[in-house]
Amino acid sequence: MAKGRVEIATEFCKSCEYCVISCPKNCLAVGEKVNSKGYPYVVSANPDDCIGCAMCAQMCPESAIEVWRG
Amino acid sequence: MAERVFMKGCEAIAEAGVRAGCRFFAGYPITPQNEIPEYFARRMPEVNGIFVQGESEVASVNMLYGAAAAGTRAMSSSSSCGISLYSEGISYLASARLPAVIVNVQRGGPGIGAIQPAQQDYLQATKASGNGGFKMIVLAPSTVQECVDLVYESFELAARDNNPVLVLTDGVIGTMMEPVVLPPMKTDEELAAIKAHWDVNKRACIGHPLGQRATCFPGSVGTGQEIANKEAEAMYKTWDKDVRVEKFMVDDAEIIFAAYGISARISKAIVRQLRAEGIKAGLIRPITVSPFPYDAFRDLDFNQVKGILDVEMSIPAQMRWDIDFAVQGRCPIRECRRSGGQLLTNDQVLAGARELIKEVL
Amino acid sequence: MEKVYTKTQGIFQDVVSGFCPGCMHGTAHKLVGEVVEELGMLDKLVRVEGVGCCGLGQSYVSHDVIIAAHGRACAVATGVKRCSPDSLVYTYQGDGDLASIGLDETVSAANRGENFTVIFINNGIYGMTGGQMAPTTLVGMKATTAPFGRNPKEHGYPMHVCELLSQLTAPQFIVRTAVDTPQNVIKTRKYIKQAFQNQIDGKGFSLVEIVTTCPTNWGYSAKDSLTFLREKMFAEFPLGVYRDKDKEEA
Description:
The complex is a heterotrimer of chains A (70), B (361) and C (250). With 361 residues, chain B is of the alpha/beta class. Chain B has 13 helices and 16 strands. Chain B folds into two domains: 3-199 and 223-241, 3-Layer(aba) Sandwich (Rossmann fold); 244-360, Rossmann fold (3-Layer(aba) Sandwich). In chain B, strand 15 (307-312), helix 12 and strand 16 (333-337) form a beta-alpha-beta unit. In chain C, helix 7 links the parallel strand 8 and strand 9 (206-211). In chain C, helix 1 crosses helix 7 and helix 3 crosses helix 4. Chain C has a seven-stranded mixed sheet, sandwiched between helices. In chain C, strands 6-7 form a two-stranded antiparallel ribbon. Chain C has one domain: Thiamin diphosphate (ThDP)-binding fold, Pyr/PP domains (Rossmann fold, 3-Layer(aba) Sandwich).
């Protein structure tokens, strides 16, 4: 059971991957789909490993990530 | 009972500003207008106002911009080459539609020119005090009393139009002393009402609850800028009613002096002298040099008027082009000029008039 | 589960920023929003905005905005804050705006100890105009107006704003920080909060310099720009607190 959960506002993602490289559990990855601006947005690839630390959200320049923990 | 006091032009300008509700002044030292910032530095603490000596003219006019954006009646002054540095900020004030009053106590030019009085910023003041083709009401007093009255009123004009207003005077008027009647002091209640009205219109950038933000955007992207330009133009077109001109003994005049500010005062003395000799002379003195009183010249009876003498402390002459535009070659226009800080004397203006009279009468 | 991170109300909820992928302007914007929201003063917040990429913030932030002429933000903020002392005023400026065309206004406002907050974004390049040399461009770093790299004999050396301003007596708080790691983001949030708290407490001029990336004009991917940031930019612009009067007095 995951300790945390992220929700990515895909339309805001610009695929800079700052979240991907800052996730201590390697939960995030660039997905295969693109948003309306043409960016292949980041998805939660290993959601079960999420600990809700919010490192990804801290790093996201676009405030595109919301995080839950508990 | 109105107060009648003996005051120097620059100090009277400053006091008129305070009485009109100016509560922010920023400026940078430059001769011959230093008495204005010096007066504000002493006076502002007495009325709970702010005086800042800017690090430059560029900074001062941008402080003015900030104060105006916060909804405060604000004013600044400088002289000629200093006003050139203001042009960035004046253009921004006009673009953001912010009210502010700027006084130019003119000195010689171009460049550093001379610290003595001149009238060499006419075209800059009336045609292009910055980029973008905006306009300002430009008021040109010819006495210390008129400085007081026009500065006092300029705050109302600026607030009415949300546009900067320029008072164009010179180092003679700025440094001379004359008796003046001072206007009433705006009360704190009146000033609070002015500030509140500004904020009701959601303009004062002082912080607002979410969803009600105020913005101060000079210019905008795409079609927004064109819309703003058109709105400004519509406002400029309302200025016909604001045109002000003094016509002195013009009705039957055959020789017309055209002059503003201190030159008009000298010209007036010569008109009287020529009248005493039986020569039908008159004076047209623009008080608003922008909007210019074109009609005062356009509507002259050119069967009666034989010649116009443009009197200016500027070489080359500058107001001359506005007169030309109105007269359209219907009578000769001659010039009587000094520049670079050299004052016109009665004798010089009289000599200029005599030459014109010899030519056309 | 409990929500532990959400978008600040300090920026519009439904507006996608105009910043390039990996640009840290967005990070700086959200940190200002988060801090002031935490202080409960979003309704008093006035942003005086410089010209350049920082100008993209005008349609991104939800609070009052005044656009200043290029370089004049500190002069404009002086006018605003003096006339409206209850407002929470900050300037938001890039390196060209603050350290080149606006250096006089910056130094003079700092020297007067003006009671507002400066957020200074230093990415060593002119972004908006397309990659020209900035006062903070590194020696040897290429720019469109220094196509062979910044040459000290011709262009001088990178300008160190924090070091320069910390020579003055008046400033309250001067810090250089970064947002390249979650740890640094958290640290920067703390600094920004201190800078705004100083203003609330009437302590005077506070400046937070954030050394950031410009992936687009540096010519790197966002990820690779972090390497350049850490290896080159941080070497030239050491992170740290350059002035904190609170600590000096303690």
